[in-house]
Design goal:
Helix content: 25-40%
Distance between the termini: 18 Å
Order of helices and strands: HEEH
Shape: globular
Strand content: 15-25%
Number of strands: 2
Structural class: alpha+beta
Radius of gyration: 11 Å
Length: 65
């Protein structure tokens, strides 16, 4: 899978994550040709598998540290 390289890429990921139950805000620090950071604010606990699936559906891979 390719990394996020532009605002449209980040928007696609943000839209997919915003659709998850409980997500109030999505912030993406876009790093073209690098590893972009995604920060979620949610009113409910989020399952990593659910977040991973949403990111994959947008065409990207979730990397956790």
């Amino acid at each position: 899978m390719a990394g996020m390289t532009c605002g449209h890429c980040a928007s696609s990921v943000a839209q997919a994550l915003s659709a998850l139950d409980g997500v109030r805000d999505v912030q993406i620090a876009l790093v073209p040709d690098g590893i972009s950071t995604v920060t979620l604010a949610a009113s409910l606990p989020l399952d990593e598998g659910t977040v991973r699936s949403a990111v994959a559906e947008a065409g990207y891979e979730l990397i956790t540290s």
